[in-house]
Amino acid sequence: MNIRLIGEDEVQDAYYLSAQAFRCGTRDDNFAVKRQADADKPDTVGIGVYDDAGLQTKVMVIAYEEVFEDKFVAPMGGIGGVACLPASRGKGYAAAGLKYALEVMKDSGQYLSALYPFSWAFYRTLGWEWVGVQREYKVPAAILKSVPETESVREATSADRPAIAKIYSKYCQRYRGMAARDLRAWNRLLNHREGNYTYTYVYEGPSGLEGYLTFSGMDRDSTFINEFIVLNTTAQKALLGLLKRHDMQVKSFRWNAPDNDQFWSTFYHNDLSTSISTVTQGRVVDVAAALSALKPGLAVSGKVAVGITDTAAPWNTGVWQIGVEAGTVTATQAGSEPDISLDIQAFTQAYYGTPSLAAVREHSGVAVSSERAFALLTDLLDGPPMWLNDHF
Ligand SMILES: CC(C)(COP(=O)(O)OP(=O)(O)OC[C@H]1O[C@@H](n2cnc3c(N)ncnc32)[C@H](O)[C@@H]1OP(=O)(O)O)[C@@H](O)C(=O)NCCC(=O)NCCS
């Protein structure tokens, strides 16, 4: 077995692998051309696992950045396109490719990673764990209300995009984990798609745009809104009124929102359904870098020794002496006994904050020998909920 980055001249092999793993063997040359362009993107790295018969397994690492409130922006490796040819499955190739991806991410400064798993168990053994809780609303258009505020809603034009991005970045600062988007990401969300128009509406308040929603195509039974973000309840009311105007075309609308979103309780109705699910499977790739990025308040200070076990990324394993002082954090390997011991999966959850360190302690294996140290780590990792609305 040989693991290395997939060369530009090998993109067709990667495409062949993807076609079999994800598209039931459908051969679509346009798709191949697009994949070629994607592979040329500087933000995507393809890792290949080779044996004597050539490329057998691939793992793609896509460069993202996650916003943690107004405090810092974390480089994150988004994992996608993990696939192994059927005749080579069960030999440990995918696991080996993912371990190599962890090294690639660490070397390029991506101290966090996230993915959307086909199986939580598969990635859990390699150190990823679920993070974030989100609500999915399903609302019959008929129960929405017509309100005068909808008069301030209009269809967005391309000139509105900077203002839409501004609403989004303001909103990001209320959470941990939302993607910092570049122009390409905005185009993916707001451009028309192959076969479908994309409809985007904005609410214009007294001081400019205060909310937007966007969806591509319409399903008569249930239309999914790709993003519905507002900065205040007036904008929300107004945009809901716009959805109401679709009640002769669309039976119900669905959208995702963070766990602390209050729509379900402010708009309570027997026919409104709210379900919850996890957001993504995350991973701290580099414990030292992730800890050093934290920006705690000045009131948080002290020292705590945290023991971490990480079999897939051995550089994280050990006892970390964490020092917190004057809003900065240092993390160095220490020979001392740990105050708190946990595995990388539990540490990742506490780092993203949903579930919280206290919840992780209650439900997973966190050993605590000093309550003072536990209180300090809790304060250090305190913050708003995790949410991410970008998919890869
Ligand atoms: C999923 C896939 C990449 C696994 O590749 P693989 O090379 O066979 O996986 P590995 O041999 O490295 O398996 C690593 C571990 O995961 C386990 N595993 C493998 N396939 C699994 C599955 N479908 N569900 C749960 N666990 C699985 C293995 O038993 C092994 O565990 P072990 O270390 O305890 O023995 C491959 O089956 C595939 O290409 N599937 C189709 C595409 C796909 O769904 N990709 C995932 C996108 S998120």
In short:
By secondary structure, the chain is of the alpha+beta class. The protein contains twelve helices and 19 strands.
Detailed description of the structure:
The protein has 392 residues and is of the alpha+beta class. It folds into three domains: 2-127, Aminopeptidase (3-Layer(aba) Sandwich), CATH 3.40.630; 134-279, Gcn5-related N-acetyltransferase (GNAT) (Aminopeptidase, 3-Layer(aba) Sandwich), CATH 3.40.630; 286-380, SCP2 sterol-binding domain (Nonspecific Lipid-transfer Protein, Chain A), CATH 3.30.1050. Helices cover 29% and strands 34% of the residues. The strands form three sheets. Strands 1, 2, 3, 4, 5, 6, 8, 11, 13 and 14 form a ten-stranded mixed beta sheet that branches. A five-stranded mixed beta sheet has the order 17-16-15-18-19. Helix 3 (93-107) links the parallel strand 4 (72-84) and strand 5. Helix 10 (344-352) runs antiparallel to helix 11 (357-363). The longest helix has 15 residues, at 93-107. Bound molecules: coenzyme A (COA). Residues 21, 57, 82-84, 89-95, 117-119, 121-122 line the site of coenzyme A.
